[in-house]
Amino acid sequence: ASKELAKEKQEKSENSMKVGGRIQIDAATYDGDIAGHSDGTEIRRARLFVQGSLGKAWGYKLQYDFADDIVIDGLRDAYLDFKGFENFKIRVGHTKEPFSLQNMTSSKYVLFTERALPIVFSRGRNLGLELIHDDKNWSAAVGIFGRGVNGAELDNDEGFGASSRVTYAPINEENRVLHLGATAAYRSTGSIDALRFRLRPESHLTNTRLVDTGFFDADSYNRFVGEAAFISGPFHVQGEYYHTSVDRDISTNADLDFSGFYVEGGWFLTGESMNYKPSKGTYSRVTPKAVVGKGGIGAWQVALRFSSLDLTDEDITGGEEDNFTLGLNWYATPNIRFAANYVNVLDVDGGINDGDEPESFQIRSQVEF
C-alpha cells in the first residue's frame, strides 16, 4: 500500500499547470492620405492561457483571446504535446505553423507594436500535426495543417498545407548571438480556388489596407523565407526576405510572384541585451537591470525598421508599400512594457491607394503574467 501511495504521489508531482496571459492596450492617431482611419484606442490583445504537463511524456496548452474578433471564438492555442523522446516532441491541435522569425516570436517580445509588412504571407495558427526538435543551438519543425486560406477570410475552405522551419545559431554566447534560419511552406486553396493578400500599414487601429490584391484565382502557393539576426551586447539587428509563388487555377492566367523584406535593429540605452532562445530560434522576455519600483529606471530601447512589400505581378495590381518605423520601448519590469511607434509610409506604388504616404503614431501599454 505504501508503494502504491508513493507511486500516486510521484505521478501527481509530475503533473503541472500554469495560468498566464497578456493585456495590450493601444492608442493611435493618423495623419496624411489614409482614408477610413480611426483615431482612438483599443484592447489589442487580452489573452488567458493554461499550460502544463500530464506526467513526464505529455504536455498541453489552451489559450483564448477575449479581444480577438478575427479568429473564430477567439481560440488561439489548443494543442497536446507528446514529449517522450529527448529534444523531440509531437504536437497535435491548433498551433502556429512554423514560419519565419517575426511570426514565431510572441507578440509580447517583438521589437515594435506590430510585425513588419511581409507578415501578410504568414498562415498564423491552424489545426494540424507538427514534429518539433530543439537542441542547444538549433531547432527544426515541420507540420501538416488544414483550415482556411491566408488573408482570404473564407471560413468554409479547408485546403491543405505543409510548413517547415530550421534555425541555427553558429554563435551562441551570452549577449552575443548569430542566428540563421529558413522556412519553406506549401498551401493548396482547396475547393475555393481563390486567394487574397492584404494588410494594415503596421498599425492595427485603422481598417484601411493600403496594399490589397483583391480575390484572384489560385490553385496553390509556395512560400520561402530566409532569416538572419545578430546580437552584440545592447545592440541587435535582424532581417528576413519573403518570396511567395502562386500557381493559378485558370490555366490561361499567368502564375504570380510576390515578395517582401524588412530590416530592423534596436539598441538598449541602459545596457540590457535581447533574450534569444536558440532551442526555438526566437526572442523571449527582456529583464531590466534595474526594475522600476525597486529603485531602478527599467530598460530603455530605441529601434528602427524599414519594411517593403510588393503585391503587384502580371494582372494583379495589389500595390507596393515601403514603410519606415521609429520605436521607443520602456521595460519597467520583466512583465510590464510601454512602447511608442512612429510609422511613416514612404510610398505606395500601384493599386487603389497609389501615391498615398500616411503617417501614424501609436503607443502601447502591456502587461504579461
Outline:
This protein has 369 residues and is mainly beta. It is 4% helix and 57% strand. Mean pLDDT is 92; it is low at 148-153.
Describe this structure in words.
With 369 residues, this protein is mainly β. The protein has one domain: Porin (Beta Barrel). It has two helices and 22 strands. The chain has helices at residues 2-13, 101-104; strands spanning 16-31, 40-54, 58-65, 75-85, 88-96, 125-134, 138-145, 160-173, 176-188, 194-195, 198-199, 211-212, 216-217, 220-232, 235-247, 256-268, 275-277, 282-284, 299-313, 316-331, 336-349, 359-368. A 16-stranded antiparallel beta barrel has the order 1-2-3-4-5-6-7-8-9-14-15-16-19-20-21-22. Strands 10-13 form a two-stranded antiparallel sheet. Strands 11-12 form a two-stranded antiparallel sheet. Strand 1 (16-31) and strand 2 form a beta hairpin.
CATH topology: Porin
Largest sheet data: 16 strands, antiparallel, barrel
Share of helix, binned? under 10%
Distance from N terminus to C terminus (CA atoms, Å) equals 41 Å
The beta-strand count equals 22
The dominant shape is globular
Instruction: List low-pLDDT spans.
Output: 148-153
Query: Can you tell me the number of structural domains?
Result: 1
Tell me the name of the CATH homologous superfamily.
Answer: Porin
CATH architecture level-2 label? Beta Barrel
Tell me the Rg in angstroms. 21 Å
Averaging pLDDT over every residue, what do you get? 92
SSE-based structural type: mainly beta
